[in-house]
């Protein structure tokens, strides 16, 4: 009787395989899987059981240890009400970014050349030690993240979101209550069928029929409430994700130029991508996992205590405690492997992105094999960490399986003994069986939720650290808009350097009069482009001050001063969009007619008319589909459209041929007179600025001399005179060599 009444438990581990490769680093990978274990036929007793007792699946689908699917299936007489699937996203990794984002342990794992691959073992050991040292601070930071997320989950001024959360929680409670009712209906069905049917056919049929109907309605209601909960809460979760991502992106645009010059684009974009996915999981786990787990475990433990005594409840609670402790301890130990994999993943992402962005350079120097080897080293480091993740995951799953199987065996032995001595009915045996498996479901979810919650918090850590990077260029609380009074620019004793020990400008003092065309000339590194960056407040001066129309730019609103300055940079940045939209970017309120007008002024009209798609022609990523000269003309047309009172031209015609440059400069001068703008030309070719109103010559970060072109040439000892003569000689030599080659070829 005892042996025939016991349940056959079966544990199935579903193994999956993951892959790493270029797609992992250039896109978002995801894996989806599910498992369902069918029921079998059980032993026959004096009464009839319409199916098997229970077959349980208790395992995890593992790709590279990143994530998988944790499924527990309970099938009793065709009942798989306990079947649940927890989906986990793949390729969650943590990003180490520039400056403040870079943590100490990343310094030991950055891969730069293929020869560094043999350092991975030492790096792993070092990063493991550092992770232990940083654990208390990490927990504190993760708690801060959770508190911030709660604000998105329960927003102050959003009644609609609060109502949705309340409804979702109510549906959650209803779903769990109905789910717990299912085994009670099944118990009553079994007990009511264990009678003499020949004498009580009508009464038994009515009772059993009602129980079966209640059983079906409870199962359907539990699933329906759960799906409604998911649908209602989805709006709250997605709005939170959008808000966090938008806030992060807005913060990135507020950061100073120094941050963006030193950041790693690939790692940072991956951090944002993974962080937003982590938010989705954490928000969902709060409402759909953590609270349900606590509720379901409490209900099941209470039922076991009330109906069957302390022994059953103690066994259930003890199992829960052992399972939870083992899972948390093992997952914490495995976290070092996940961090190593994350760092290797970021390195590979940066190598891949950097290689593709610099595709032409790779080809020019025939370094394809070097780049592939460099990429392979990063993948090799990732492979080693992933193997450790997979093997440690097997240990985790085996331990979880052993704890649950041992507890299930002990509880079923106790229940079968109760049936044998008459203290429990067969229905009680079935009820205990199903309650235990309903406890196994939240236990299994507890393991997967804890793992994914930790991984999501790691992913979100980089995202929230991005938001913590200090904005160094700030406007004061009492900042005022710039008041245009002609556009005079005055530098007073300005000292500045990108590095403290290497100043670029040294006590520089000069004036750019309003409405005039002024040139800044000098050798490379003399500080010409730095002047533009300081005026635009990409950086703040370390000493001295900058005045525009007598107003200190540090006391102005950033928007007003930047709106008043237009720039044609030497390296023209273009969006991967149409010619029209790239020009339109100069002033988004401009009409199509205005866009086409400035294109004509910038000598672009003829080119655009020859293109099949005209203004709708795509320029490609960073404008690679058009020439350097065409990019510069497009940038000039964009600046003309902006109509700012102050305009900077930083080597704006360096990529143009002489004829086009001459025509374009004439158009620029005409437009500047029409706009009455203060214009500053940064130039190396002195001929392009010889007709300006004033020339400021810089040397080693100071103003060496200034004046008009003819006045500066009057002094044969001046720096400008020597520069002019040197360029004249160079141009004359080039002309002679060209004529000589023409004669020889003829």
Automatic annotation (TrEMBL):
Keywords: ATP-binding, Membrane, Nucleotide-binding, Translocase, Transmembrane, Transmembrane helix, Transport
Domain ABC transporter per the UniProt entry, residue ranges: 489-725
Its membrane topology: Multi-pass membrane protein
Source species, domain of life: Eukaryota
CC terms in the record's Gene Ontology section: mitochondrial inner membrane
GO biological process: intracellular iron ion homeostasis; iron-sulfur cluster export from the mitochondrion
Annotated region (Disordered), positions in chain: 87-136
Principal place of residence: mitochondrion
Record SUPFAM superfamilies: ABC transporter transmembrane region (SSF90123), P-loop containing nucleoside triphosphate hydrolases (SSF52540)
Family assignment from sequence similarity: Belongs to the ABC transporter superfamily. ABCB family. Heavy Metal importer (TC 3.A.1.210) subfamily.
Cross-referenced PANTHER family: ATP-BINDING CASSETTE SUB-FAMILY B, IRON-SULFUR CLUSTERS TRANSPORTER ABCB7, MITOCHONDRIAL
Functional summary from the UniProt entry: Performs an essential function in the generation of cytoplasmic iron-sulfur proteins by mediating the ATP-dependent export of Fe/S cluster precursors synthesized by NFS1 and other mitochondrial proteins. Hydrolyzes ATP. Binds glutathione and may function by transporting a glutathione-conjugated iron-sulfur compound.
Subunit-level organization: Homodimer.
Name listed for the protein in its UniProt record: Iron-sulfur clusters transporter ATM1, mitochondrial
Species for this entry: Sugiyamaella lignohabitans
């Amino acid at each position: 009787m005892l042996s025939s009444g016991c349940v056959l438990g079966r544990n199935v581990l579903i193994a999956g395989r993951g892959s790493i490769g270029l797609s992992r680093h250039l896109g978002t990978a995801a894996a989806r899987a599910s498992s369902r274990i069918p029921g079998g036929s059980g032993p026959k007793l004096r009464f009839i059981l319409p199916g098997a007792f229970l077959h349980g699946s208790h395992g995890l689908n593992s790709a590279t240890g990143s994530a998988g699917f944790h499924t527990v299936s309970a099938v009793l007489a065709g009942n798989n009400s306990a079947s649940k699937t927890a989906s986990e996203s793949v390729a969650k990794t943590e990003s180490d970014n520039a400056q403040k984002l870079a943590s100490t342990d990343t310094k030991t794992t950055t891969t730069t050349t293929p020869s560094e691959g043999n350092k991975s073992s030492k790096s792993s050991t070092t990063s493991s030690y550092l992770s232990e040292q940083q654990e208390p601070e990490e927990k504190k930071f993760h708690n801060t993240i959770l508190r911030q997320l709660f604000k998105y989950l329960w927003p102050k001024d959003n009644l609609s979101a609060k109502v949705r959360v309340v409804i979702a929680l109510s549906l959650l409670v209803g779903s769990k209550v109905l789910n717990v009712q299912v085994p009670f209906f099944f118990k009553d069905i079994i007990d009511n069928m264990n009678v003499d049917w020949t004498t009580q056919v009508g009464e038994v049929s009515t009772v059993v029929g009602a129980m079966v109907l209640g059983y079906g309605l409870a199962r359907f209601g539990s699933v329906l409430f759960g799906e409604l909960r998911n649908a209602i809460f989805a709006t709250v979760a997605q709005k939170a994700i959008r808000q966090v991502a938008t806030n992060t992106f807005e913060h990135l645009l507020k950061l100073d130029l120094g941050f963006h010059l030193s950041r790693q684009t690939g790692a940072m974009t991956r951090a944002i991508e993974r962080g937003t996915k982590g938010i989705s999981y954490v928000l969902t786990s709060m409402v759909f996992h953590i609270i349900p787990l606590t509720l379901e475990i409490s209900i099941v433990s209470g039922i076991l205590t009330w109906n069957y005594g302390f022994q059953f409840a103690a066994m259930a609670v003890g199992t829960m405690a052992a399972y939870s402790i083992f899972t948390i301890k093992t997952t914490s130990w495995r976290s070092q492997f996940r961090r190593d994999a994350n760092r290797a993943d970021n390195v590979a992402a940066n190598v891949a992105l950097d290689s593709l962005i610099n595709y032409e350079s790779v080809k020019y120097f025939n370094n394809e094999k070097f780049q592939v080897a460099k990429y392979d080293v990063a993948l090799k480091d990732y492979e080693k960490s992933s193997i450790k993740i997979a093997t440690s995951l097997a240990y985790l799953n085996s331990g979880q399986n052993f704890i649950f199987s041992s507890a299930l065996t002990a509880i079923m032995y106790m229940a079968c003994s109760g049936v044998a001595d008459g203290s429990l009915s067969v229905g009680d045996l079935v009820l205990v069986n199903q309650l235990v498996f309903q406890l196994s479901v939240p236990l299994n979810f507890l393991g997967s939720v804890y793992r994914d919650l930790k991984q999501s918090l790691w992913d979100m850590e980089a995202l929230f650290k991005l938001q913590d990077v200090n904005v160094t260029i700030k406007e004061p609380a009492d900042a005022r808009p710039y008041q245009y009074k002609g556009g005079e620019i005055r530098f007073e004793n300005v000292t500045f350097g990108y590095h403290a020990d290497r100043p670029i400008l040294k006590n520089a003092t000069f004036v750019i009069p309003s409405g005039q065309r002024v040139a800044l000339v000098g050798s490379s590194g003399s500080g010409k482009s730095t002047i533009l960056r300081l005026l635009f407040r990409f950086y703040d001066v370390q000493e001295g001050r900058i005045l525009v129309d007598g107003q200190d730019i540090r006391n102005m609103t950033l928007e007003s001063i930047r709106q008043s300055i237009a720039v044609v940079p030497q390296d023209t940045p273009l969006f991967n969009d149409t010619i029209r939209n790239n020009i339109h970017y100069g002033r988004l309120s401009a009409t199509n007619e205005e866009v086409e007008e400035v294109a004509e002024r910038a000598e672009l009209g003829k080119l655009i008319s020859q293109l099949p798609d005209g203004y709708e022609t795509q320029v490609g990523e960073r404008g690679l589909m058009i020439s350097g000269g065409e990019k510069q003309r497009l940038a000039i047309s964009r600046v003309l459209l902006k109509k700012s009172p102050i305009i900077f031209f930083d080597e704006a015609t360096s990529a143009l041929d002489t004829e086009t440059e001459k025509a374009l400069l004439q158009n620029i001068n005409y437009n500047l007179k029409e706009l009455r703008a203060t214009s500053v030309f940064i130039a190396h070719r002195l001929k392009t600025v010889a007709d300006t109103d004033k020339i400021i010559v810089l040397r080693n970060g100071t103003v060496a001399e200034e004046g008009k072109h003819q006045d500066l040439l009057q002094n044969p000892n001046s720096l400008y005179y020597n520069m002019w003569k040197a360029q004249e000689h160079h141009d004359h030599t080039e002309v002679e060599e060209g004529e000589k080659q023409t004669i020889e070829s003829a």
